[in-house]
Amino acid sequence: MSKERVCIIGSGNWGSAVGKIVAENVLKNSDIFEREVRQWVFEEEFNGEKLTDVINRERENPKYLPGIKFTDNIKAMPSLVEASRGASVLIFVLPHQFVRGVCNEMKDHIAPNAKAISLIKGLEIKPEGVTLFSEEISRQLGINVAALSGANIADEVALERFCETTIGSRSNEDGELFFKLFNTSYFHVNVIRDYVGVELCGALKNVVAVGAGISDGLGYGSNTKAAIIRLGLMEMRKFGQTFFGTVEDTTFFESCGVADLITTCSGGRNRKVAEAFAKTGKPIDVLERQMLNGQKLQGTLTAQEVHQFLEARQMTKDFPLFDTVYRIIYENAPLESIVRDI
Ligand code: NAD
Ligand code: 13P
């Protein structure tokens, strides 16, 4: 049987941390996986050089994950077609605003037996409906797609600090394969079937993190933030159960659920930028550029997408925390409404 050829689509902060894990694990499972892991890098200049050249020479991504070395079996490639050619395992890990078009470009080049996993924390929300990225990728490529999400701040994972993560997979066989690709002594994977719940948690917690950041910016303290986390968790569950009947309560007790909410609302980028928004009043896109060095926020965009979706159903009032976060960021609602209106 031929070995699995792995391609990582994305090379930001999390894409790089995951690249390190995956490249190490294919070496440990050389009976299953080909040695080389190809990584598609959205090409850009870094200190006057191509970022892909720097990554391949330095064995490090100094723009998005400085100071962390990769094993020599990861190859950064600027062409999506070349990176995905013949790939049988696809790992999607890019900010959700950039997913459109990617599948179309690679669909004629992947292996016929390919399977994929989405690490994207975001939803494809259009006024007419919500689509999970795993489902959208599955539809466009005609393959099975699992989801991975958890309390996983990339910089900490890259430093090999212990954490857990959740993989949601409909197929047991794919679940076992992805376990081998991602699990390490410091990155504990639990595989469950509720891929919908895994992905919904990963997307919606970013909206809650923006609320937590606003509260921090106002100096409201730990009790208020805990209340925002609790109410956020309830709205996440309500959203899942209202629009995706299959979401299971137990999923919220996995790393992708309550654990990710806690970590994102303390150490995440969405929280940090929202705190600065509350303190300075500067626009979010300006703060994103100033504070994140090319990394991307997902929570404010997801708040807007969720709002459009709920508004189309006249249901914004049923999700007061999501609604309040949206109104503060996009409609100049007073910052204090983060406690007054939820
Ligand atoms: P990031 O926030 O570091 O974003 C930067 C990436 O976006 C770079 O690879 C850049 O090349 C790419 N990019 C910029 N413009 C682009 C374009 N026009 N087209 C395609 N790519 C473009 O990315 P990340 O941290 O790797 O996040 C990827 C996903 O993983 C997100 O959904 C995020 O929520 C999720 N995630 C992130 C973390 C984390 O701690 N960083 C942890 C878990 C999950
Ligand atoms: P941020 O994008 O807010 O940094 O969250 C990272 C994350 O998803 C941690 O699990």
UniProtKB/TrEMBL annotation:
Keywords: NAD, Oxidoreductase. It holds the Pfam family NAD_Gly3P_dh_N. SUPFAM superfamilies: 6-phosphogluconate dehydrogenase C-terminal domain-like (SSF48179), NAD(P)-binding Rossmann-fold domains (SSF51735). It catalyses: sn-glycerol 3-phosphate + NAD(+) = dihydroxyacetone phosphate + NADH + H(+). It is an enzyme of class 1 (oxidoreductase). Residues 6-172 form the Glycerol-3-phosphate dehydrogenase NAD-dependent N-terminal domain. Residues 194-339 form the Glycerol-3-phosphate dehydrogenase NAD-dependent C-terminal domain. InterPro entries: 6-PGluconate_DH-like_C_sf, 6PGD_dom2, G3P_DH_NAD-dep, G3P_DH_NAD-dep_C, G3P_DH_NAD-dep_euk, G3P_DH_NAD-dep_N, NAD(P)-bd_dom_sf. Its EC number is 1.1.1.8. It comes from the Eukaryota. Belongs to the NAD-dependent glycerol-3-phosphate dehydrogenase family. This is Glycerol-3-phosphate dehydrogenase [NAD(+)]. The lineage of its organism: Eukaryota, Fungi, Fungi incertae sedis, Mucoromycota, Mucoromycotina.
